[in-house]
């Protein structure tokens, strides 16, 4: 069975493993901290590939940052990683085929092939973590836009320049729906600058009134974003993934979204492709799994 | 040269003409007021088709309301027209091929084939009229979503339930960027319930301070929506159409959007397919023009 050496690189960690065309991880998962310098990042890539390329047919890389439409390299700049990283020459890493995709797009593809959006032509995946990632599967294909950067969940939640977003603009969905956004919402409501997302989630789980008020504000911000996306895309499903997704209530979100939209009823679900969906999705894409169907 | 009998039906007017496969209107344009009852609407359709079907190869209908993915009929309900209209059996209107598409989607296709987004794979069209319409051309195809309803420009501009939208939800882009939205913004800022969009546009053109303040608020609301769409789609172009588009400043919008987005630079332009782009686009689609390329 064809196999990929899958590597997932983010601002904090680098993971690698061997993934087969069923999307199964069939080796131990290796983990590295993402080094600070570009030279060290390149060294880790070389080490991983030298050690494991003979076990696989292709090299599949899931990366932070927008990836071009030819799946060969990164567009523009990315946050939270060595500033030269976007110049990375992925294609020279191996004599085997090297395939690169954005981590959120790769994770969306994993959900599309083996996870919560399996078999559904149109799905939007949103990762709720420290930030917010987005992946668009439209008519059974990853939609990447003009240059590959589509799917950025930076649409406005308000227009009065209330909260700066990590992207440099103001009041994006990411600035409210992310873990960082939840912390800022908590600070605003509690007036406590030291409050954490753990305080909010823990307090909400224990029915603390203030923590529940903060949680409900965060949940409503997510809800308002989902309404917009459902009206824009008329999707089969919106998949919530990432570390904070487990604290959402998909049944409530589905019911409420469907009361507010003008498009046809949709579903909000949690992702089910697991924590390594970036590696899995990149491997499936690099192996061509799912790419034979209609566009 | 193949020709279509094109009919455009909205809440106020019904237009019809013969359109060739170059997108040229080659007959006099007939106009009717849209009648109040469903029976009268059906009668007008029959009259038009009986009188003109022999002049054309296909019947092309551009209609208000979401149209299904098989382009045969309307999904769910539509505003501003007889409530039974969505049950219309378009397919029985003629023995010739009958093709139906949503008016904003049809207009977006006209821009894609003969207008401002000609030759560009990914464009978003926004019609700024009494309401706001949307059409998505993604990878050289109209993107219609799960059931055909995609492209609704009902994403939130704020989350504090400030202004009710015609869709029944709150604070959608349509409720701020449309002509009706501009009037409401003008009422809020001027405290004058009788102010009209003509007052605002006329006053802004004469550099009146208050009218310019209102115009700038409306322009900023449009801008904030465009930033979100550019980040979601990474489009080649966003086309502004409809009666209010002529009062926008595409150069300013382009420059400002490109300062705020994380995706790659895009362009904001005015539509150039004209007032009858719905008829033209429906005719081009019914005749298959542009549908041979890559998806």
Quick synopsis:
With 295 residues, chain A is an alpha/beta fold.
Structure description:
2 copies of one chain form a homodimer. By secondary structure, chain A is of the alpha/beta class. Chain A is built from 8 helices and 10 strands. Chain A has helices at residues 38-52, 103-114, 173-177, 179-190, 197-205, 209-233, 250-260, 277-286, and strands spanning 3-9, 13-20, 30-33, 58-63, 97-102, 123-128, 132-138, 141-142, 237-241, 267-270. In chain A, the strands form 2 sheets. Chain A has a 5-stranded mixed sheet with strand order 3-2-1-4-5, sandwiched between helices. In chain A, β6 and β7 form a beta hairpin. In chain A, α5 (197-205) packs across α6 (209-233) and α6 crosses α7. The longest helix of chain A is centred in the C-terminal third of the chain and has 25 residues, at 209-233. Chain A is globular, with a radius of gyration of 19 Å. In chain A, 54% of the residues are buried. The model of chain A has no long low-confidence stretch (mean pLDDT 96). Chains A and B meet through β7 and α6 of A and β7 and α6 of B.
């Amino acid at each position: 069975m064809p196999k990929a050496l899958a590597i997932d690189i983010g601002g904090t960690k680098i993971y690698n493993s061997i993934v087969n065309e069923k999307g199964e991880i069939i080796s131990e998962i290796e983990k590295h901290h993402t080094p600070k310098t570009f030279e060290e990042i390149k060294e880790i890539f070389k080490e991983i590939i030298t050690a494991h390329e003979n076990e696989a047919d292709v090299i599949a890389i899931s990366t932070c940052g927008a990836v071009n439409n030819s799946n060969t390299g990164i567009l523009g700049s990315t946050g939270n990683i060595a500033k030269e990283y976007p110049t990375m020459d992925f294609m020279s890493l191996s004599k085997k085929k090297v395939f690169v995709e954005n981590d959120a797009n790769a994770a969306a593809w994993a959900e599309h092939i083996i996870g919560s959006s399996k078999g559904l032509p149109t799905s939007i995946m949103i990762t709720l973590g420290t930030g917010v990632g987005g992946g668009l599967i439209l008519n059974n294909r990853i939609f990447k836009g003009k240059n590959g950067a589509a799917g950025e969940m930076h649409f406005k939640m308000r227009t009065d320049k209330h909260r700066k977003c990590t992207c440099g603009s103001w009041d994006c969905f990411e600035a409210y729906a992310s873990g960082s956004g939840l912390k800022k919402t908590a600070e605003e409501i509690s007036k406590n600058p030291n409050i954490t997302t753990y305080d909010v989630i823990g307090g909400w789980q224990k029915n603390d009134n203030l923590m529940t008020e903060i949680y409900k504000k965060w949940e409503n911000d997510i809800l308002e974003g989902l309404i917009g996306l459902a009206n824009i895309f008329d999707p089969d499903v919106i998949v919530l993934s990432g570390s904070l997704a487990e604290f959402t209530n998909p049944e409530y979100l589905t019911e409420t979204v469907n009361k507010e939209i003008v498009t046809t009823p949709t579903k909000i679900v949690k992702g089910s492709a697991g924590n390594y969906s970036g590696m899995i999705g990149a491997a499936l894409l690099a192996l061509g799994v799912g790419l034979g169907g209609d566009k």
